[in-house]
Fold each of these.
Amino acid sequence: MFLIIPQVQASDLITHKQRFEIPEFTTFGGKTIKQLQVGWESYGELNADKSNVILITHFFSGSSHAAGKYAPSDEAVGYWDAIIGPGKAIDTRRFFVLSVDTLVNFNVHDPKVITTGPASINPDTGKPWGLDFPVVTIRDFVNVQKALLESLGIQSLYAVAGASMGSMQALEWATAYPDWVPRMISVIGAGQSDAWTVAALEHWAQPIKLDPNWQQGNYYAGEPPMAGLTAALMLLTQQALYPDFFNQSNPDHNPLEAAPLNDIRQSHQVVNWLRDMAATRATITDANHMLYLIRASQLFLAGQDKPLAQAMQQVKARTLFIPASHDLLLMPYLAKQAHQALLKAGKTSNLGLIVGPMGHLDGVTNISQAAEDIQAFLTQEAL
Amino acid sequence: MFLIIPQVQASDLITHKQRFEIPEFTTFGGKTIKQLQVGWESYGELNADKSNVILITHFFSGSSHAAGKYAPSDEAVGYWDAIIGPGKAIDTRRFFVLSVDTLVNFNVHDPKVITTGPASINPDTGKPWGLDFPVVTIRDFVNVQKALLESLGIQSLYAVAGASMGSMQALEWATAYPDWVPRMISVIGAGQSDAWTVAALEHWAQPIKLDPNWQQGNYYAGEPPMAGLTAALMLLTQQALYPDFFNQSNPDHNPLEAAPLNDIRQSHQVVNWLRDMAATRATITDANHMLYLIRASQLFLAGQDKPLAQAMQQVKARTLFIPASHDLLLMPYLAKQAHQALLKAGKTSNLGLIVGPMGHLDGVTNISQAAEDIQAFLTQEAL
């Protein structure tokens, strides 16, 4: 998901980015990453018995900045600030809320993000990894988070919650480490990447690979593939939205504009609008990081070792799925499939819904619609 | 629309491709195309007073081969053979049904297609037009059809019907030449390309333009941009479909395949499946033709001179709109907008629906669902 609307508002939370390092990390695929570093931040206080931890796992184009500000003068707040904070649905007066920048993070050139991926220096060569960086999976994101939690003396979660690719991590937590997870919230989520989703994600990779500057991923000494990356972000942006919002944002659109009518090389204004947004965003990301995020999302199968119906049998959490009515990227049927698989396995699962004009992005911008459901869910006893 | 499932069946119709030439054609944008040629075919017989003509306008990736076979030994029949033929909804015992290859046709390298576009030789230079070919619009497709009809002595239609980009031509006919059109049928259609649709179509153009072989459209003396064209066709194919069909077609899909897990350069099987289909189809098309078809579709505004609500006032036809329930490419709201605009203008408009698992493509593969509605519609008196 590609967040194009920073939520500018007041927040009572001030947080700061911290750094966590793993000297040698072994991926799910069996490869080694040395000197792995990720950033993390937290809101609220860890209680004495470390029983009040809620982990927030972030979406494709997101970071660990889930709530609050880094400084009172910041314009934007974290993406789920509407539900995380003192007195909010995820109440930081009660919970210690923690979030971690993923591996191969999208916002690698954002100074507030700390991540390790193909744009990082491989300690063994002194050069950027490029495509020698190992393929990483949703399980790897989870395992890095688990290592961080353990370094803080934490042995279990109160809950895990995430949107979109964050929902994949949340369900992966509940499936791979069921003793850690009594409550799981999946927003605009899925239990696995079905054939449709795997193919849909591939379209984001193709413009990058076609850009002659991509050079099979070895572009770090030269010009990065900005045209391909921008095209990829244009597609991602549109697929995370829905026509209602898109058309409302372009009220003066006229299909028969003079420039594209008179010159095949010119574009409609709405195309230029989309391209300008994508080009701006491209300056803080990295094309190879995007390819690795696409692959991690494509490979997602909760539990990572058996069909979904079987994997759901090992979940011990109460679960809450909240799809968005107009989602074109991870359509509601995906959340419903995981929910149904859990019910069939005899688990306690709940299904909510966010109704909005923005499509997939409603899982972020309209999360306040789900605030009451989330708040009520968090009051329920562990099973 | 990208037809991936040839309808293999018997047909009672045999047809043949004919050639029509316009020595000098002036586009809507005011440019000149010399020695314009298009192919056309027909089913049934023109009656004495030439009052039984039904024009079928084709979709983005289609041709004039709407029904029948060129030879009894052909495997595939025309795309709407289910509703065009003796005794069928569009009954060729009664009607003279005619269809025309569009300008800048998608299937330019199909020996059965005759078209003029950027891959054609510009008579003034003796070289392929490339991007010097003028931008053409849906009105230009209509004007070529009108010139052909007039060359046959035809002065009005009994009806015009088309799917997808064909629906644009059908409504353009009814709006630009209302005295010609007493009945219009729009399947999986739209009244204009809204901001969402213009941007959605642009994503098909981008992989082509990123392919280094594209060379700003001047590739006819060298290697064509097949990688970019294939990527574009992969996207077009998926957007014309829906998850239900897509997932049913890949029953063995496993998100956690070994090849893409172990190597970032490898793809999932479903991606290879989609790529193979697209690469095959790419051999009969042309990258620049696709760019010009995208542009013609982006520029579509019925009537091409005023807002849709006003333009619909000049329509004299009874109209029938048949969206497909699961269409992700031209969602049903687009057909409903045009239908509502006609009702508001005091016109007689009808709204049907095709319900199916294939998405946009249901307008072709499941057209038999609408056969009764179409048959009944064609019995109605002109207004």
Amino acid sequence: MIAVDVGGTETKAALITGTPSHLDRRAQRRRPTRPTGDAVVEDVTALVDDLRAESPAPVDAIGLVVPGMVDERTGTGLYSANLDWRDYPFTERLEAATRTRTAFGHDVRAGGLAELRLGNAQDLRNAVIMPIGTGIAAALVIDNRVTDAPGEIGHVDVGHPDPCGCGQTGCVEARAGSAAIARRYAQRTNTEVKGAAEVAQRLRAGDPDASIVWQEAVDALARGILLVASLLGPEAVVLGGGLALAGPLLTDPLGRRLDELVTFQRRPELRLAALGDEAGCLGAALLAIDMVEET
Amino acid sequence: MIAVDVGGTETKAALITGTPSHLDRRAQRRRPTRPTGDAVVEDVTALVDDLRAESPAPVDAIGLVVPGMVDERTGTGLYSANLDWRDYPFTERLEAATRTRTAFGHDVRAGGLAELRLGNAQDLRNAVIMPIGTGIAAALVIDNRVTDAPGEIGHVDVGHPDPCGCGQTGCVEARAGSAAIARRYAQRTNTEVKGAAEVAQRLRAGDPDASIVWQEAVDALARGILLVASLLGPEAVVLGGGLALAGPLLTDPLGRRLDELVTFQRRPELRLAALGDEAGCLGAALLAIDMVEET
């Protein structure tokens, strides 16, 4: 099958063979993502045609995952501000363009599915799988299944005064998203940085401004995780995305802050995701496999 | 079968016959709840013996639900501060005492199950069923199933400065629980009131202090529901418990406050629960029916 992960800036596509427990990536393509649903379908169709030519067997299914708000059941991209679509019928349009059955899903939830089946959440019955990049959202695993809940943990109010692009104030993402971390450090120091990774580097070097910005990010994340612990009681939170590349620099202070905040809640274990930026594409492949197996 | 709902102050037991879609209550008993797990099992055993004598057929199962933190799968009452137990093996002890198979559950989640199967949530796939009494918790319905998530929406931080009995500050329950509403009105006016219902009465009569306390309760509830909307995206929130008896006096301002707060979230419909304080007992009966049918 062919798996496609439409990201905010880049679209990844891969020709995948193998079994659900051992996926094999045979060929891969990347290209920049263009806005609008029509442009995405056009570009994905080109990627599919290209990869199909390399396939030793007929391609029986496509797995497609996109960001934003998604309705898996109807195959619709409900809304993406960045990529400029609203109620766009992805499954219908891509099946028409490629004449190939398509399983459609949400990038974060599909990535969570991949961590659950193939990555660092395989032993968990209740978990939150939470990639932290420019944006923050989560796949919520309940009873060993990824729910279709929105999981917008980046946009819960954790009590700080900063506004967020979503129109609310106090959002986790407005302090702990990687873009927010870089922006807040730059504002504080009048020094441009390339991203949150550079703030992490400066933190390691003992920069006190980096330390404050990082600690505020950690506090916002801990408060968001605490809310989820009160409501859902996950065994573990699996951290992914660019910010999780900081490893213990993130998980150590986050664990300490959680220890301070928890009262009656089960304190979830903190783990790092295993699949990195391949999670979305692997999740798209799993969605396609599930679709084929169910029929 | 015999269904038992152990409440914080009163224990209700009923002899129930009929089918899962039409339960018939043949006889009923109530008695005050005494603390400790052993006392509860002793009292429940007496209630069961009493009701068994009225049963036309042998009693094949007991459904027992209790408050606090509960592990349904192991049949354990993990913790109740009020009723003074920790890791108490309810299923094991009640089965030994009654020689009758027992299905064990959590009072709020069982009540949610009853609303889902028999009450005002029958058409909902994703819902939050939220009784508001002295305490506030919720049954979380995802994909038409009541999850075993803790659902402690009463103890999420919604940003006000008041402390809560749980050790946190800003909890929904500390402003919107019925005991908190009565206490806050009394503190504000130096007038004792019998409970939240009396505050509601004074609100109807145009009392400005009642109006402020009520509006602060509504604001805390709305912010709690907003968090759940961001994370879980329920179609509806089904309000139950004593406070929901206020009807539109609660749901009208709560709906307006939600309309103001919502940005990207689906604004959940607000409904009133249908089963009142029978929900827990009916839920206990459903747990027993499910157990019998599964075997």
